[in-house]
Amino acid sequence: MTKKSISSEKILRFRKSERNIHWAIAIPFMVCYASALTLVIFYNPYPSRPFRDVFSWIHRISGICFIILPIIVVLTSRNDLRLFFYNIKQAWAWSLQDIKFLFLMGFAAISKRVTLPDQGKFNAAEKLNFMVLMSTYPLYVLTGIFIWLTDSALLSWLIHFSMAIIATPFLFGHLFMATLNPSSRVALSGMFSGFVDRQFVKHHHASWYKDKFENAGEPDDNKEKPVPDSMEDSSKTRSDKE
Ligand code: HEM
To answer: Where are the alpha helices (DSSP H) in 79-123?
Structure first.
């Protein structure tokens, strides 16, 4: 197999700015989650245990990163703002196909005979994940600041805590799909190099594939040279559209 044919099997799924915003949110979020879990499970029953302050400060500092890092990415990716809005629109636009997908996805996981409806850039489960994150983000920030700056913030604490409970199935579901589930973890490279197997995308995101690669529906298409970050080999430079 030639280098050229290897490269044409991969397509650019997420541009650098999209990957950056993902990690600018995901890494601080996971540190916040892990430090909060440690505080609740390990320290709340016995607050005098040593190093509680360390975890409390890890939580606060990762909370600050959760606010600041995405802002920095947006400010430094101004050319891709239209793409960010496109992604948001994709996540919030629902059709009957999406409802059908949600209903059938469990059955499809156990039986090969169940066919799932074509999906856009994000499938319905990913859309839900995106929507939950977007709706809870401002509340995490506001309640977090309130808890930090005021002495009696029981309501804020309850909201903050409830949102972490709501996030739990989405977080673990997302991590499972992204890293462990054999049929979806193929997409993982998309959040590192940006590139994903063409056949995978054609199959799992058929509507988006047609729209982007056959109808040029996504904004700012092809401004970024589609060379994977980790593969600077010039033989892999090619137009993303064929
Ligand atoms: C090690 C941790 C993580 C890994 C490996 C990971 C991986 C990925 C991958 C591969 C995608 C693209 C899926 C696709 O191609 O359709 C994605 C999308 C996304 N990720 Fe993550 N992610 C992680 C943590 C997180 C966290 C903590 C959050 C939320 C705070 C998050 C939020 C999202 C959102 C909103 C999307 C777009 C919609 C979706 O695919 O669910 N990710 N992630």
So the answer is: 81-92, 96-110
pTM over 0.85: yes
Burial zone of 74 (CB within 10 Å; 0-12 exposed, 13-18 middle, 19+ buried): middle
Going by alpha carbons, the residue nearest to atom 40 of ligand 1 is: 126
Domain containing residue 79: 3-241
Q: In this predicted model, what pLDDT tens digit does every residue of 91-135 receive, in sequence order? A: 999 999 999 999 999 999 899 899 999 999 999 999 999 999 999
| CATH number, position 76 | 1.20.950.20
Residue 3 pLDDT > 50, yes or no?
Answer: no
Report the domain count for the chain. 1
Residue 200 beta carbon below 6 angstroms from any ligand 1 atom = no
- Which protein residue's CA is at the shortest distance from atom 19 of ligand 1? 22
